[in-house]
Amino acid sequence: MRSIWRTLDSGLWRGVLAIAAAAAVNGASFGAIAVAAGNPLWVPVAMSVLVFAGGSQYLAVGVVASGGSPIAAVVGGLVLNARHLPFGLAVGDVVGKSWPARVLGSHLLIDESVAFAMAQKDPVRARAAYWACGASLFVAWNVGVLGGALAGSLVSDPNALGLDAVFPAVMLALVLPALKEAGKLRPALLGAAIALATTPFLPPGVPVLLALLGLVAVPRRTESAEVKGATA
Amino acid sequence: MTIVPILVLALGTFAFRFGGTLLRDRFTLPDRVRELLSTGAIVLLVALIATSTLAKGHAFAGWALPAGVAVGGLLAWRKAPFVVVVLAAAATTALLRLAGVA
């Protein structure tokens, strides 16, 4: 843990803490909404500790609150969270080798921790960024949820504060450098177009998974591989 | 909501996360596949950005949200510090909504 402190520069820590602050307010909103929908206090709290995936938590509570079945809520949440499988494949070596590290590290796998890890140049910094972001957001999210559930409608509408702009803006900031790498921009743009085009018709989560079809736009071979192949 | 759906959602979500990291460790992947996996993650992240910027549920999110994200993105592209990106994005969206822009 001490090495994580030393590895990350202060700019990165400030970034992590800024997102954590936004996550705490967002969590407070989730806690308040869940309690307002008639759930006892322990429901949003247990959900946030055990599921730790905000989008699916909002979805599940919303489905049940609007009269849907718990099965529909769970299925919807799982579809939304299915992207964590390819994310795990992509950052698996960052999480750690030992079993405790892998179990805990897997639980901290969220969009933000993946994006923070992938934005780093070397594996040591990637690991530090992953854990710093995942752990900070876990604490902030859960403290926020508990506070919101206790305080009721203290932050009833985080959108009035523009907090819904924080998640995409932060992710964009993290992803921008990677998009400059060879062969990344075209599949990303094609994937985003597919996701946007299908969003009006499909259940939440499915359009983002369909974006993986954008991988057809990956060049068959990177240019350096071709050069190597030519000289071999 | 009772404890059972919460546990099922939690276990299923953990299975996705853990399954991905475990599979990654079980096989030594060729460079080409590793490259494809990291491109796949970027594709998913960009799709998340696009949908969470432009859509709320099945409908268009309105102009205030994409405007805030655009301001944040522009600042990030100009290498502004993270905190500035976060605050500028939220402030732009909040002020536009305050001014009556959806």
TrEMBL record, chain A:
Protein localization: Cell membrane
Alphabetical UniProt keywords: Cell membrane, Membrane, Transmembrane, Transmembrane helix, Transport
Pfam families: AzlC
Residues spanning the membrane: 12-38, 58-80, 128-154, 160-179, 191-218
Primary location: membrane
Entry keyword annotation includes rRNA processing: no
Domain of life, per lineage: Bacteria
Keyword Transmembrane: yes
Topology of the protein relative to the lipid bilayer: Multi-pass membrane protein
Family from the record: Belongs to the AzlC family.
Protein name: 4-azaleucine resistance probable transporter AzlC
Organism whose genome encodes this protein: Actinokineospora diospyrosa
Lineage, top ranks: Bacteria, Bacillati, Actinomycetota, Actinomycetes, Pseudonocardiales
UniProtKB/TrEMBL annotation, chain B:
Chain segments annotated as transmembrane: 6-24, 36-54, 60-77, 82-100
Keywords in alphabetical order: Membrane, Transmembrane, Transmembrane helix
Entry-linked Pfam families: AzlD
Organism domain of life: Bacteria
Name the record gives this protein: Branched-chain amino acid transport protein (AzlD)
Protein source organism: Actinokineospora diospyrosa
